[in-house]
Structure formats: structure tokens, C-alpha cells
Design brief:
This protein is mainly α. It contains eight helices and no strands. The mean pLDDT is 92.
């Protein structure tokens, strides 16, 4: 077990990062708080102190990974109102680089998608999916208003295709 004293926020983040690796490796149902505590180098009691339950930790892992992906997408799309090719290229490069650097994120994406029949997972994940789709559709609408993208393309449908390609990359 870890004997290093860390500030609470750092310790919580350490546990969360470890949980993401364990969930990605073993799935939610195949993971245990014991395996997460061993990965993090902390006691199981500390996991419960910070998160309350394995399920709450899993939901926070979904929240963390989803926000990381969507915030990156939004940050790239925002400054590229006049260059759709550059925006699309940078978004995909961000995503590929992130997944190459953090393999567990790709696995978490599939894990989350496989758990979408669970209400609590949908409640955490779907707002991020809606944000991503809105950011993409808004960018397409902007490009259409500038004459950079054909007007007859439905931005919502195109956003779904774009978003789906992210999932395929994972």
C-alpha cells in the first residue's frame, strides 16, 4: 500500500486513474475494489471513503473520460469557424493521439457503450454525447453559413456520422 501522503484531490485522482485502467482491462463486472485498490496502491477502505461504492467510482470514471474527450473536441472546433478541413483534421489528430497515449480510453468507450442499457450510465454519458453532437452540428451550421459546406447537408445527420467515426477509431 502507498505510504506517500497526498492531498485529498491528488489521492482521489490517483484512485480514479487506477480505476479507469482496471475497468478498461477487466470491464465493470470483472473489476473489484480490491483490484482497483491494488492498482492504486491504497486500501479498499480509501476507495469507499472517496467514492462510496464501486458503482459511484465507475460512474465518475465515465464522467471523467467523457468530459476529457468532449472538451478536447469543443476546444478544437471553437477556433476553426472558417476552416472545416483544418478543424476535422485537428479533431481526429487529437483523438488518435489521445487514444494512442491512453489506450484505456478506447477501452472505456466500448465499456460505456456496452453499459448504456443501464439508466445511471446513460444519465452520466448521454449529456456528453449531446454536447459533442451539438458542437459538431454548430460547427457545420457555421461552415454552411460561410458557404464552406453545402447547404443541403443536414448538420445533425452529419454530426452523427462524424461522431460515429470517432467511435470507429476507438
Amino acid at each position: 500500500m502507498s505510504t506517500n501522503r497526498l492531498p485529498a484531490a491528488e489521492r482521489k485522482r490517483q484512485i480514479l486513474d487506477s480505476a479507469i485502467r482496471v475497468f478498461a482491462r477487466s470491464t465493470y463486472h470483472g473489476s473489484t475494489t480490491k483490484s482497483i485498490s491494488e492498482e492504486a496502491g491504497v486500501t479498499e477502505a480509501l476507495i469507499y471513503r472517496y467514492f462510496g461504492s464501486k458503482r459511484a467510482l465507475f460512474l465518475e470514471a465515465i464522467d471523467h473520460t467523457s468530459s476529457r474527450l468532449v472538451e478536447g473536441l469543443e476546444a478544437i472546433l471553437e477556433p476553426h469557424h472558417s476552416d472545416p478541413l483544418e478543424a476535422i483534421s485537428e479533431c481526429f489528430q487529437f483523438y488518435v493521439d489521445l487514444l494512442n497515449k491512453h489506450e484505456e480510453l478506447a477501452k472505456m468507450i466500448f465499456l460505456v457503450l456496452s453499459e448504456l442499457d443501464q439508466k445511471d450510465v446513460r444519465e452520466v454519458y448521454l449529456p456528453y454525447q449531446r454536447r459533442a453532437l451539438k458542437a459538431i452540428a454548430t460547427a457545420i451550421d457555421d461552415w454552411q453559413s460561410l458557404g464552406l459546406v453545402r447547404e443541403d447537408i443536414d448538420s445533425r445527420s452529419a454530426a452523427w456520422l462524424y461522431f460515429g467515426s470517432y467511435l470507429i477509431l476507438a
